Amino acid sequence: MEKKKLAIIGSGPAGYTAAIYAARANLSPILYEGFMTGPSGGQLMTTTEVENYPGFPEGILGPELMMNFRSQSARFGTQILTEDVESVDLSKRPFVVRGTSTHIEAEAIIIATGATAKRLDIEGARDGEFWQKGVTACAVCDGAAPIFKNRPLFVIGGGDSAVEEAIFLTKYGSRVYIVHRRDALRASKIMAQRALKHPKIEILWNSGIEKISGDQVVRKVHLKNFNDGKIEEREAGGVFFAIGHQPNTEFLKGQLEMNPTGYLIVKNGSTRTSCEGVFACGDVQDPTYRQAVTAAGTGCMAALDAERWLSEMESE
C-alpha cells in the first residue's frame, strides 16, 4: 500500500487551496477530488457567474474558477485522483484511506468534502431545468445577479436561514415571498418578527411550489395552497431553497466529533478535529458562512496546521 505524508479528501475552494499550500511546502499531497458523490470542484461547478470572489472584478464562471484552482494545485505537484473516498480508518496511524480504486496510508488527512444544499424535487428545479437559471440555494452568492433585480423572488423554507435569505433579497427583488408549508415559522422569535414586519416580505402560509416554469430563465411559479388544494400561478424572477445543508461526512462513520447535523467540529481558531493528525476545512466544518472565500481561507489554515503537526511528529 502506497504511503503518503498527506491525503486531502475533497476538492472545491477548500481542498484545492489546501493542496496548493501543502504542495508548496513539499508535502507531496494526494488529493481525492471526488467523482460520483458530487462534482469535482464542489458546489461552484454548478454555478454560473461568480461575482463576489476577490480578484475578479468582472466576475468569473464557477467552473472556470475551480479549474484555475485545480491547475494551480497540480502545478506545484499535487497528485490528483478523480475518484471517491469510500472509507477511512482513523483508529491508528498511519491512517488508511480507501478510494474507489486506490488505497493508501497517510500520516495526516485533511477533510474538505463540503456540504450539499438540500433541494426539493420540484418540476423545473432539477439539474438541466432551471437550476442556476433562476433557481439556487444561496441568496448571498447569487442574489445580486441581474436576473433577480426588481423581480418577485420566492424563498422556500421556514427557519432562520429562510428569513435571513429573504431579508437579504429585499435589497434586490421587487418583493420577496417566503413559501412555508406550515402556519407558523420555525425561525427564532426575533427573526420571525423581522420577516413579519418587513414591508417587502410576504409569507405564503400552508403553501408549496408545485412547478417552476419559464423560458431561458425562471418566469413563473405554480403555488399550491395545502388548505384548499388550489393552484395559483405567479410571476417570479427566482426561487431560493433555504431548507438547510447536509455536510458530506457519511464516509467517516462517526470516527470524528460532529455536531447534531453532521458538521465536523474543529478546535477554536484552528482546523484540528477530535483526532490528532486529521484536519477539516471548508463547508464540511462551517454551517455558518459557506462562501468560497471562507472555504479557501480555511483550506490554507488546514495545510499550515497539517504541515506544523507533521513537523512536530518528525521531531519527536
What does this structure look like?
The chain folds into 2 domains: 2-116 and 245-315, FAD/NAD(P)-binding domain (3-Layer(bba) Sandwich); 119-241, FAD/NAD(P)-binding domain, CATH 3.50.50.60. The protein is built from 6 helices and 19 strands. It has helices at residues 12-24, 62-75, 139-142, 160-169, 189-197, 292-315, and strands at 2-9, 30-32, 49-50, 60-61, 79-81, 85-89, 95-99, 103-111, 115-117, 135-136, 152-156, 175-179, 201-204, 207-214, 218-225, 231-235, 238-241, 245-247, 278-280. Strands 1, 2, 5, 6, 7, 8 and 19 form a 7-stranded mixed beta sheet that branches. The model has no long low-confidence stretch (mean pLDDT 94).
Q: What is the β-strand count?
A: 19
The CATH homologous superfamily of the largest domain corresponds to: FAD/NAD(P)-binding domain
SSE-based structural type: alpha/beta
Which assembly state applies to the chains in this document?
Answer: single chain
CATH class of the largest domain, anyone? Alpha Beta
Main sheet? Answer: 7 strands, mixed
Shape call: elongated
Order of helices and strands: EHEEEHEEEEEEHEHEHEEEEEEEH
What distance separates the N and C termini?
25 Å
Instruction: Name the CATH architecture of the largest domain.
Output: 3-Layer(bba) Sandwich
Nearest-angstrom radius of gyration? 21 Å
Mean pLDDT: 94
